[in-house]
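Input (structure):
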């Protein structure tokens, strides 16, 4: 009896792993719109032990795959604002203000939409970084920069540190055309914008925020 139970468990584990690998292969080789459409059709699970049919996209693994396949290059520039989506994974545990300033500066200067050649300038504070953001505004030919900041790895999004949020509170200045949003579950105070990491609505939420900046 125990042997039969063990064999059954191995069967389901092997089948689960095979399904997961298939989904992962599709996620890696399909565009996000195609993957999204295929994933969110009305197909349901038919496992005999499941109490109810559950939409496939409700599993935690689905949320991870969706988070990994979010394409921030879908964000559009408006007439007034240029968005820069930046993954600050190196700030996951960073607490020193000077390091936060420099790492953010490096990411901005080497962003695919900016690509300023050479070594990024040395900055140690929010005020110094603001000075250099004016150069970025001129290069992108928009009076407003919308910095969309997030911390994400293979497991999905992570929360920013208190120190990173405090730095960004000082860096953001709508009067200077410097707008910042964090992808986070926290409620942030103005002038920062908090956007929840919901993979299904994330791009549209960010785009709505960008379009509101004038």
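Output (sequence):
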């Amino acid at each position: 009896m125990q042997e039969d139970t063990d064999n059954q468990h191995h069967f389901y584990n092997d089948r689960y792993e095979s399904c997961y690998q298939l989904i992962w292969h599709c996620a890696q080789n399909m565009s996000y719109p195609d993957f999204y459409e295929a994933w969110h059709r009305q197909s349901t699970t038919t496992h005999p032990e499941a109490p109810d049919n559950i939409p496939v996209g409700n599993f935690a693994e689905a949320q991870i795959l969706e988070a990994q396949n979010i394409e921030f290059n879908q964000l559009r520039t408006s007439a007034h604002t240029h968005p820069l989506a930046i993954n600050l994974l190196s700030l996951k545990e960073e607490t020193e203000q000077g390091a936060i300033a420099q790492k953010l500066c490096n990411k901005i200067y080497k962003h695919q939409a900016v690509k300023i050649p050479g070594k990024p300038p040395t900055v140690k504070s929010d005020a110094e970084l603001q000075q250099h953001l004016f150069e970025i505004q001129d290069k992108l030919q928009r009076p407003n920069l919308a910095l969309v900041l997030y911390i994400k790895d293979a497991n999905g999004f992570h929360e920013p540190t208190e120190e990173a949020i405090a730095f960004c509170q000082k860096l953001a200045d709508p009067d200077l055309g410097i707008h910042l949003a964090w992808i986070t579950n926290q409620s942030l105070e103005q002038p920062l914008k908090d956007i929840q990491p919901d993979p299904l609505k994330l791009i549209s939420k960010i785009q709505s925020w960008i379009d509101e900046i004038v």
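Notes: Confidence is low (pLDDT under 50) at residues 43-59. Strands lie at 81-87, 144-153, 156-158, 178-183, 193-195.
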